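Appendix B. Chain record.
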Amino acid sequence: MNRVGIGYDVHRLKKGRALILGGVEIPHNTGLDGHSDADVLMHAICDAVLGAIGEGDIGQFFPNTDPQWRDAPSKVFLEEAARQVAKQNGKLVNVDSMLIAEEPKIGPHIEAMKTNIASALGIPADSVGIKATTNETMGFAGRGEGMAAHAVASVQLPD
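Structure tokens predicted for this chain:
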């Protein structure tokens, strides 16, 4: 049985934090604010994977009220999502994602992001799609106040 999940995440930009996207530290004058490393891309993918297997969202597995997740690398979250798929004897087929940000340019970092995400999920890098777009200066992302990401994941589960 093939299952599909969708994920969405958003974080504010904040001075004094590193910008981590897809597990890659990207040079920028602001970073994403959050309890963990605030990797909006990995968070959206995590929710998509968990959704595909009928589990809760990232907040149920890694609540932001738990101090052990303070500044945690989001790779840990993706690894747990992959464990949850395996626990159901499933196979993660692919993930596809869209990052929404006015800046910085994401293109030069996509291959490294794909490698990190694939490694955390235990799938080939060519099974990870990452695209980026701007918000054409509209809304919070367009004003440079934050970033958002959407993701979908496909998982095969036994009948």
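Further analysis of this model is presented in Appendix C.
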